Amino acid sequence: MPTPILDINSATRFDQRHKGAVVICGSYGGLYPAYLSAKAGLRAVILNDASVGFEKAGIAALDYCQALGMAAATIAYDSARIGDGADMRRRGIISHANPAAEQAGCLPGQSALAAATALTLAPAWQGDPPPHREGRTIIRDVAGLPRVVCIDSVSMTQPEDAGQIMIVGSHGALLGGDPATAFGVDALAAVFHDAGVGIDEAGIARLPALDARDIAAMTVDTASARIGDARNTYERGVISRVNRTAAARGIEPGTKVIDVVARMSDDLTAPS
User: Fold this and answer.
1) Interval 76-113: pLDDT, tens
2) By C-alpha distance, which of 179, 209, 204 is closest to 191?
3) 80-109 burial by CB neighbour count: b if 16+ within 10 A, else e?
4) How far is residue 250's CA from residue 50's CA, in Å, rounded to a whole number?
5) What is the pTM of this model?
6) 87 and 18, same structural domain?
7) Looking at residue 260, what is its pLDDT?
8) Is 116 exposed, middle or buried (0-12, 13-18, 19+ CB in 10 A)?
9) How many beta carbons lie within 10 A of that of residue 1, not counting itself?
10) Domain of residue 256, residue span
């Protein structure tokens, strides 16, 4: 039976159908999507390089998968929309590949579909990936102020995050362009990674979608902090884009995330 080539918008949505397949996945090429790809039993995976970014976090999947003997590649963030597997399949151009992928004939410069076709001949790796957990950390929990919560993925939102300040390791793209995927709760504010912004400004598409819900949303320059690492984003991130709701609160590009959080707290405690 031939190896199927499938596409999907997020690595958090793998299921039994993807086992043994070559998957073009809209997630960024970081450690957690790599872990999910290996755990799902994919033959090979193609992710989005999210402009590579700080400490090459956007392509960390390549070395992770190589250590397992699994073929992995990324497509260029400016060739197809991050968060949109179908668009990556249609327009994506390979930017990086690990040695296991290259040995199968997947090379930079190829179309995503041509690379995926080559990867159907990659050896299927065997075994279980080492455990990998995304982080969820409450930075501040003070009576009378919104909590500041760091989550490495939008998939980690909880109902009690409504009304809080959320620092998110994920990219700022809508999955498949669907505004319903912008964020799971009505937070006070949410910070994402811009993934280099990319083609069609896909990496910041959550921002206008969250204006409609009166959520102050912003992205950090992916070169300023590790994509997929919310704590690092809080400590190092520098704002690159803001939506109208955030701008109305006086938040501007070039501001550090840690200063944005402090300012929002000062605004909430200032005498009216």
Assistant:
1) 999 999 999 999 999 999 999 999 999 999 999 999 99
2) 204
3) bbbbbbbbbbebbbbbbbbebbeebbbeee
4) 28
5) 0.95
6) yes
7) 95
8) buried
9) 4
10) 136-269
Which residues have CB under 8 Å from 38's CB, separation 6+? Answer: 64, 65, 68, 70, 125, 129
Q: Which one-letter DSSP state was computed for residue 93?
A: B
Q: State the Cα–Cα distance between residues 159 and 140, nearest whole angstrom.
A: 17
Pick from 63, 85, 119: which residue ends a domain?
Answer: 119
Q: Per the domain annotation, does 124 fall within a domain? A: no
Identity of the amino acid at 95: S
Burial class (CB in 10 A: 0-12, 13-18, 19+), 54: buried
Average pLDDT, the chain: 95
- Furthest-apart CA atoms within the chain: distance in Å: 69
Q: How confident is the model at residue 272 (pLDDT cuts 50, 70, 90)?
A: very low
Which residues does 184 contact at the CB level (< 8 Å), separation at least 6?
154, 157, 161
Count structural domains, the chain: 2
C-alpha closest to that of 214 among 176, 254, 247: 247
Instruction: Supply angle C-alpha 212, 229, 20, rounded to 5.
Output: 95
Summarize the confidence of residues 107-131 as an average pLDDT.
94
The owner of tokens 């968060």 is: 83
Record the tokens describing residue 80, joined without a space.
């197809």
Q: How far is CA 246 from CA 46, 132, 149, 219, in A?
A: 34, 33, 18, 11
